[in-house]
Design a protein that fits this description.
Mean pLDDT: 82
Low-confidence stretches: 1-12
Radius of gyration: 15 Å
Largest sheet: 6 strands, antiparallel
Helix content: under 10%
Number of strands: 13
Length: about 130
Amino acid sequence: MIHASEDDRLGEDAPGSTEGILVVHAGDGAWQPGPAEGVRYRVLQEDAERSTRTSLVRMAPGAVIPAHHHHVAEQVYFLEGDGRVAGEELGPGDYYRVPAGTVHEPSTTRQGCTFLVIASRNEVLA
């Protein structure tokens, strides 16, 4: 369950949302094509005021997210699989954060992975 702060300005029509609380169930929302082949994401929450988005990301085995630039700090928490992000090998339970303005190399996975990411709503591919 995800709890949103008062500043998130949630719409009253969001599923499971009341008085500033956002609940996203596993079956809510659709997976969308990501920035590269084999990458899909599902938006959990967007904060227009802060220009951030909280999403789940799935990468198929061998998928690559191209080099990109972050407008805000990026936070990633790995749920399953393996990945190489910003030069770091990551696996289940690993967390990393990079500051706003960071440009990093392509993100890759050998076996495939799923992770939670809080980042810019609009990433700029390098």
